[in-house]
Amino acid sequence: xxxxxxxxxxxxxxxxxxxxxVEVTGTTGELGSIIYYRITTLSGRLHxxxxxxxxxLLKPERKNGGHPHALVVEWTNSNNALFKTRTQIAHYPxxxxxxxxxxxxxxxFLPGFLFQSMRQRGWTLNSIYVGQSERLRGKHDQTKPLxxxxxxxxxxxxxxxxxxxxxxxxxxxxxHVPKRSSLA
Length: 184
Hints:
The chain is α+β, with helices and mostly antiparallel strands. The protein is 50% helix and 12% strand. It has one domain (2-176). Strands 2-1-3-4 form a four-stranded antiparallel sheet. Helix 1 crosses helix 2, helix 1 packs parallel to helix 3 (42-56) and helix 4 (70-78) packs antiparallel against helix 7.
């Protein structure tokens, strides 16, 4: 259930990226969708929208040594959201894997055993892990299984990222979009 919630939360991020794409390019929704959805990966769409958005935001006053404008920093921070975790949730199998976890005072689960009371320890059964065939590539030696317990928190983080993108578009982006003639 929480895997599905995480994936649908990412769908909202994708919608917000599309809206930003249309606004930045000054195209219609129909023409924008033809271009935007030709890119089949969410990370590819994010990189496209990121590059386009950065191209219209304020540049540093000095070419070497100037600090980025606060709006550029805000944009960069808003789209730095959980892509490694998204790939793991969307593309890796879920299986029953027994592992010891420790609950932090904030309610998060950490892998392994910390010296805490018995109420703060538990066992996790469901994990999202890199499949054996993909591990043969040798690129996932450091990727740890993702337990099911943090998925509600991850879904909340992704929903917050989508909201942040929508707020950025609505409140901050408009004045920086160049005025153009409509392609309609």
